[in-house]
């Protein structure tokens, strides 16, 4: 079933004004209408974690009151966290995993921090999807990761802009 532009906008809670609207205007309107509601499971959030954010992920967990006794990942992987809290983790602390889980959940047009980190460490593009499904690739990352232990990958302004 195909929906018209008017039906899509109505479903998004918008009403089209008289006359046509361009795709840029509709994208801008959709961005304005985005609501940061719902919840994200911690395991979904942490699957994007590479450890190249300078401790931002751990600072975010601490600020949200999420226990992480190993000093790296949350103890309760099934815990549900409000989307707005995950967004705060990305914007205030610079948590790369938070930015990526929101990019995936809301279809944001922003660079993948996971992809940038994998390219930095492994030297290859477009590994994000494979990284989730291939334990061999995850082990390869862990093996090469030590060289980048003190490296902090900066978050591009395009990511912050998409989350704003």
Number of E-state strands: 2
Count of structural domains: 2
The helix/strand order is HHEHHEHHHHHH
The value of Rg in angstroms is 18 Å
The major beta sheet can be summarized as: 2 strands, antiparallel
Structural class: mainly alpha
Strand order of the largest sheet: 1-2
Q: What is the helix content?
A: 40-55%
Specify the number of helices: 10
Keywords: Signal
Organism: Lentzea albidocapillata subsp. violacea
Signal peptide: 1-27
Protein name: TAT (Twin-arginine translocation) pathway signal sequence
Protein model, in words:
- This protein starts with a helix and ends with a helix.
- Helix 4 packs across helix 5 (83-93) and helix 5 (83-93) packs across helix 6.
- The relative contact order is 0.13.
- The model is unreliable at 6-23 (pLDDT under 50).
- The protein is globular, with a radius of gyration of 18 Å.
- It has helices at residues 5-11, 23-33, 42-46, 56-63, 83-93, 96-106, 113-122, 128-133, 135-145, 157-163; strands at residues 39-41, 80-82.
- It has ten helices and two strands; from the N terminus they run H-H-E-H-H-E-H-H-H-H-H-H.
- 53% of the residues lie in helices and 4% in strands.
- With 164 residues, the protein is mainly α.
- The protein has a two-stranded antiparallel ribbon.
- The chain folds into two domains: 1-33, no CATH class; 39-163, no CATH class.
- Residues 1-27 form the signal peptide.
- Keywords: Signal.
Main attributes of the structure:
2 strands, 10 helices, mainly alpha, 53% helix, single chain, TAT (Twin-arginine translocation) pathway signal sequence, 164 residues, globular, two-stranded antiparallel ribbon, 2 domains
